[in-house]
Design goal:
single chain, alpha/beta, Rossmann fold, 7-stranded mixed sheet, two-stranded antiparallel sheet
């Protein structure tokens, strides 16, 4: 992306509940630190910062409203320009309406990071592209978990992240790392 002056940072579901051991070993221990670096840079540049929080409707979920895991990770300090609360995968299907908020501010590009790489982050990036935004996906500022295929094979978080990068890059987003996103 050459002109990033109208680029909003969307930090997806960087919540304490994703540290729950029951979810399996989360990849990329630097995810929250890298996301915090992005937030600091966006604020320094005067660009919009959006936090997205998943309020699970499933009782017992570590992300359920009121559960301690629903809170944002401590690396995310300060208030965002907008907090979107959602119950589904895409940040564009939450409250308040993210697309409307971005459009009223003439934002035409988004940079996506957070958890999980292959669920809410990837879905948010794809929907953003479909809505006409230029999208950057900061792979090393995302994190995911092992996944099991329908045939019972387990994919490592690294395999999943590489597959997401291959699927998104050049079609739905420009896949970059934190260093590249900060070097604009």
């Amino acid at each position: 992306m050459n002109d990033t002056s109208q680029d909003a940072l969307i930090v997806v579901d960087l919540q304490r509940g994703f540290d729950d051991p029951a979810l399996g070993d989360r990849s990329n221990p630097d995810c929250a630190t890298n996301a915090a670096r992005l937030v600091a840079h966006w604020r320094e540049c005067g660009r919009p910062v959006v936090f997205v929080r998943h309020d699970s409707l499933e009782p017992g979920s570590p992300l359920h409203t009121g559960a301690s895991g629903n809170a944002m990770m401590p690396e995310l300090d300060g208030e965002p320009d907008l907090l979107v609360v959602k119950h589904v995968h895409s940040a564009f299907h939450g409250d308040p309406d993210l697309n409307e908020w971005l459009r009223t501010r003439d934002v035409d590009a988004v940079t996506v990071c957070g958890i999980a790489t292959d669920h809410c982050c990837e879905t948010t990036a794809r929907v953003a592209c479909d809505l006409g935004y230029r999208v950057r996906f900061v792979l090393d500022a995302t994190s995911t978990f092992p996944r099991t295929t329908p045939r019972g094979d387990t994919l490592t978080p690294g395999e999943i992240a590489r597959a997401v990068a291959a699927s998104l890059h050049g079609e739905f987003a420009e896949v970059v790392d934190t260093h590249e996103a900060l070097d604009d």
